[in-house]
Queue: 2 jobs
Job 1
Amino acid sequence: MYGLEIKIFDSSDDLYNYTAGLLSRTIKDSSLYRKHSSIALSGGTSPMRLYGIMGDFGGPDNIEWENVHLFWGDERCVPPDDKMSNYGSAISSLISKGNIPSDNIHRIRGELGPEDGARDYEMRLREFFNDSLFPEFDVILLGLGEDAHTASLFPGSEALREDEHWVTGVRRDNGPDRITLTIPSINNANTIIFIVTGIEKAEAVSDVFFKTPDPEIYPAQAIKPAKGNVYWVLDRDAASVYLQRSSKA
Ligand code: 6PG
């Protein structure tokens, strides 16, 4: 059974500072028993302020980057300098501040396309994680879409049923194809942190917790790590419907 914590913040400063502290503590704890720690970053806009705070990490009080490796939970099939690239988005806020050794940055090569890009990323993950059964990330950051998707695991997608590969390609009709960690890869993480803000996500957050479990419809419901901890870090808007339904439960 995994641990679940829901943290709700009125102030976005408090939300991002809490999350940065949680991330830093988690990585420092993991560095006590393994040399190389690993974080899989989320795409989208919600984590951008967190990446800016992380970019300033570097001292002994927080993440010491020389032993921390950055990965991504998913990527769009676009070049790394494309404005839709999750890697490209992180560059400006996190990586460009220069604290992270370039050898510690493992982007998903979206430009290879969904199938080749997925195989390429899985091969590199297997090298890093010594070809274990599934990758064991210390932290995976996730966002949530208004349709309750997470990473690039969308409602009704075949990717939701992938239970052997670590990474899979996702063909999209609207927007670029994607490459994503699969559900068993995500669920093998030690700590998973959802960062969800804005009133437009309120229904989706509540659906994940209160709708009859059906990950085909609400993919984020599939995130149930075997041994790890899941944190939902929400602002008051994103938590509003969840709180209403909780008070009636
Ligand atoms: C992506 C993300 C995706 C994102 C959610 C929320 O590549 O877009 O992995 O799962 O986290 O769609 O996006 P926002 O944070 O922009 O609302």
Job 2
Amino acid sequence: MENLRINSERLWDSIMQMGRIGATAGGGVGRVALSDLDRQARDLFVRWCEQADCTVRVDRMGSIFARRAGSDNARPPVLTGSHLDTQPLGGKFDGIYGVLAGLEIVRTLKDAGLQTKAPIDVVNWTDEEGVRFGSGTMASAVFAGRYNLDHGLTRADMDGNTMGAALEEIDYAGPEPVGGYPVAAFFEAHIEQGPILEAEGKAVGVVLGAQGQRCFKVTVDGEEGHAGTLPMVQRRDALVGAARMIDAVNAIAFKHQPHPVITVGALKVRPNSRNTIPGQVVFSIDSRHPANDLLADIADKMRRTCEHIATDAGLGLSFEQISHRNTIEFDERCSGDIRKMADRLGIAHMDIYSGAGHDACNLALCAPTGMVFVPCERGISHNEKENARPEDLAAGCDVLLHVILERAGTV
Ligand code: HGY
Ligand code: MN
Ligand code: MN
């Protein structure tokens, strides 16, 4: 069993095949959660899992659980997985690697005729990225009990459509209750999305934790008017106000370096017409910091700054926090297992913290949780150019295989 290894070529081929669903002209993937492309990716994943003798269940948040039975199915399952949804202009690896690494593990166990004591669930968490509904990792947050089901299903996009309705539309509003049962452990494999492992020449990162995050929806209300006739001094231009706010929150980040990081990445202008003065702008703020109290201070600063700008310009303002997750530390026993298995397999590794958020950050609240990072080229992610080396993906997957085998126990 110690000599068991995953099939690197099969893992790579599956990632490439999945990358064809929503492939972009720039070589990446655009497969936003709950789109028809997401449905196609889910269907392919389900087909592959069934071919690997897994039984597939879908919960009410649309997360998919592909179970490889153990010899004792009364034992809590060992979960592994990540997400198949991507950024609008994303890559082939962010999230996808973790889901397909889980699939590769159950395929490897099937080939080897190996049975575990506890069942293994390969999971695809719904809408990790939060592109359309604003707050990511919502399905795993409901699973972990951070939010109730109603909160998850009623998240609305900028046009007011809910996540519940979108799940019905793609036929993935499953019947299973969300979470509420014991999980032996959750392990998520993921590309690092930063430059450290590559620079240090390590194939595996043992992730110790992840920084906290607060996301906001800011609505600026002005008044529409004719671009050719309304004098400048009489205007209440929501976009000019929003632009000042965006510049100001960016300046707050620069003033406090090396933390926090603050990003305004989505903006909706109403009515979005060349010759109408913008009457309303809705924009997102994503802020992150490793210290929870400082992240809260930054949130206050941003709110007060936006209020001043709105008042000065005679604009209305709603500054709404739509998600908040504190900094988390992963389970030491899980991190220790990852380190130990990397050593045993002779794979170079180092401890690392995650700048990005992951479903594992939620699972850590309800189950022992660990994460395995692998390097990605020049740390590039959320970009069509995202790339990783087959040998690093295989190394991370081999570590994951042995960590899971030890946790699930073998017959
Ligand atoms: O936003 C994030 O950290 C992510 O990629 N889920
Ligand atoms: Mn991800
Ligand atoms: Mn991502």
